Amino acid sequence: MQNLEKRITALEAANPTYDALTIIRRVVTPGQLDVEITRLRDGDCNHWMRQTSETEQALIDRASFEVRRNPWGVASLHGTT
């Protein structure tokens, strides 16, 4: 039985069952609610800058792909204009 539990643990580690979740915090000010994000940063002081002709969603996708996640697959990014 113990051998089976070890095998299950190894399989779960190799194939996590969670879906990746990225939390984006967007700072807005009155009158500027629709301004697009140009910079993102995470809690580890990593920064992502919007590249020329890159859309806001492309920036979010790129940062979400590169950001380090916690053991449950969650990452948090802070967006500014």
Tell me what the structure shows.
The longest helix has 13 residues, at 2-14. The model has no long low-confidence stretch (mean pLDDT 86). The radius of gyration is 18 Å and the shape is elongated. Strands 1-4-2-3 form a 4-stranded mixed beta sheet, with helices on one face. It is α+β, with helices and mostly antiparallel strands and 81 residues long. 30% of the residues lie in helices and 23% in strands.
Explain briefly what this protein structure is.
This protein is α+β, with helices and mostly antiparallel strands and 81 residues long. It has two helices and four strands; from the N terminus they run αβββαβ.
Sketch the major β-sheet. Answer: 4 strands, mixed
Low-confidence stretches: none
Query: What is Rg?
Result: 18 Å
Order of helices and strands: HEEEHE
Fraction of helical residues:
25-40%
Strand fraction equals 15-25%
CA(first)-CA(last) distance = 55 Å
Identify the quaternary structure here: single chain
Any chance you could write out the topology, listing elements then pairs?
Elements (H helix, E strand, L loop, with lengths): L1 H13 L6 E6 L12 E3 L5 E3 L6 H11 L7 E7 L1
Parallel strand pairs: 1-4
Antiparallel strand pairs: 2-3, 2-4
Descriptors:
81 residues; alpha+beta; four-stranded mixed beta sheet; 2 helices; elongated
